[in-house]
Design the sequence.
């Protein structure tokens, strides 16, 4: 009697969860949100990262699983397959989010460590290994990128699949070196910096100063080195601006008893990276839906 | 899927309507990106704006004290700044101390340009600041450089920790001294 008493509410709950009304009530809001997101030009990520979409899709997944289980228990196979197919299709965008990634990074010639400007990835999306093997000077020729052991030559603006990644080469430029010298002329700090029209701040471990270098808007670049004859340099310590002006290659700016100079270094490339796993769940879902349709058609024919 | 055996026909539209309303409510509250109702950034409202500006005033006063004393950390617990910012300040003071120097800085004016809340507990404030500064020998406080003036905009990042705002970082900002006098003074 006890088993019968518990079987009753469980069966009723399963019937309610698998009902067309419950399925419609749970499917309609995320479907409407998908249409809204598409109309506003939002990405898949905006949809999958929404709390409301996740909650309703989790409910819908339970409802579809209940519908598949119930139809299976009643040996209504087309219905069971259709519910399982819809469940697989529903899982695909979340699988892309969990295992995919997208981002933009700067690569410096000779360095195997990408500098990510932004990187969005799910818990299964590991950051890829990327290399800039060679970059052209002043936009001549193609840059060579390496990802996943595969190498490809790319022009600026081109998009290619390399090593399982979709890469877009956004731009290439010069990465000169800078050096800070003490009063005796010994180099105490130095390194490469990415040169662009906008200055970014560079900090070094042993000094409190911040340095910025910029090509300056409309600067004429040397066709061989890809560098302008002078850079706009700024040196700050705390709130104080100790140097601000144009500094030619080979010349030095003096500040706080130290000197700063720059010279030709390497090249850098800006790359957009996306990885989207194969749509296995979507294909499985379509296969199950096709099976369900075929079984239903055969059933009607008999 | 189960025809007339499921919820009664009258219940189905109600269920859909309730679900849609619930979804909309959650989306509006939790998903500003999807709903199009992004809450941030927005101008800081009172009393938060005044609290953030007062924190910056305290930051500037204690900062000037740190420099003038050559790094006496008596006010360190009252300094409204993160550990990283404190580290940066003392790195600069240490650099000067190693060279036998003390920097004296005096805030002449700080004019709020903008104050925006960027999250529940984060904000960005832009100030146009005017400072006078000079370098002295640490040994006898003799002046080693003439007094210079500085007029520059600074964008401060702030984070609310409990009841107080603390500085998380700052960077120079292109800003000009506003023509109209500010309403707020430290």
Sequence:
């Amino acid at each position: 009697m006890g088993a019968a008493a518990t079987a009753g509410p469980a069966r009723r709950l399963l019937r309610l969860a698998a009902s067309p009304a419950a399925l419609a009530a749970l499917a309609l809001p995320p479907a409407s949100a998908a249409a809204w997101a598409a109309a506003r030009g939002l990405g898949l990520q905006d949809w999958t990262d929404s709390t409301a979409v996740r909650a309703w899709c989790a409910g819908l997944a339970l409802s579809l699983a209940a519908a598949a289980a119930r139809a299976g228990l009643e040996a209504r196979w087309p219905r069971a397959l259709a519910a399982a197919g819809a469940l697989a299709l529903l899982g695909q965008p979340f699988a892309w989010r969990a295992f995919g990634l997208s981002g933009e990074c700067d690569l410096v010639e000779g360095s195997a460590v990408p500098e990510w400007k932004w990187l969005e990835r799910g818990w299964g999306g590991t950051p890829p290994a990327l290399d800039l093997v060679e970059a052209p000077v002043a936009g001549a020729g193609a840059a060579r990128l390496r990802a996943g052991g595969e190498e490809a030559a790319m022009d600026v603006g081109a998009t290619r699949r390399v090593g399982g990644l979709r890469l877009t080469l956004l731009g290439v430029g010069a990465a000169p070196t800078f050096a800070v010298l003490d009063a005796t002329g010994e180099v105490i700090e130095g390194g490469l910096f990415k040169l662009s029209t906008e200055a970014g701040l560079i900090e070094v471990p042993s000094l409190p100063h911040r340095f910025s270098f910029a090509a300056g808007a409309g600067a004429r670049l040397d066709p061989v080195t890809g560098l302008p004859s002078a850079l706009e340099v700024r040196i700050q310590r705390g709130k104080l601006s100790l140097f601000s002006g144009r500094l030619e290659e080979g010349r030095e700016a003096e500040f706080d008893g130290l000197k700063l100079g720059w010279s030709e270094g390497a090249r850098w490339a800006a790359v957009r990276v996306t990885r989207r796993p194969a749509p296995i769940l979507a294909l499985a879902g379509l296969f199950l839906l096709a099976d369900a349709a075929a079984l239903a058609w055969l059933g009607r024919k008999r | 899927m189960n025809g007339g055996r499921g919820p009664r026909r009258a219940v189905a539209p109600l269920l859909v309507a309730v679900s849609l309303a619930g979804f909309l409510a959650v989306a509006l509250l939790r998903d500003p990106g999807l709903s199009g109702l992004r809450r941030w950034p927005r101008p800081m409202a009172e009393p938060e704006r005044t609290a953030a500006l007062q924190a910056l005033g305290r930051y500037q006063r204690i900062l000037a004290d740190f420099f003038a004393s050559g790094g006496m950390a008596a006010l360190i617990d009252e300094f409204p700044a993160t550990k990283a910012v404190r580290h940066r300040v003392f790195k600069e003071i240490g650099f000067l101390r190693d060279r036998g120097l003390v920097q004296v800085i005096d805030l002449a004016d700080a004019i709020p340009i903008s104050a925006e809340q960027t999250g529940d507990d984060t904000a960005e404030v832009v100030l146009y600041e005017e400072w006078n500064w000079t370098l002295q020998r640490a040994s006898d406080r003799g002046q080693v450089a003439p007094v210079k003036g500085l007029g520059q905009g600074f964008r401060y990042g702030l984070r609310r920790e409990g009841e107080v705002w603390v500085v998380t970082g700052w960077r120079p900002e292109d800003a000009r001294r506003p023509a109209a006098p500010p309403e707020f003074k430290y």
Remarks:
- Chain B has a mean pLDDT of 87.
- The longest helix of chain B spans residues 48-68.
- Chain B touches chain A through 38 residues (CB under 8 Å).
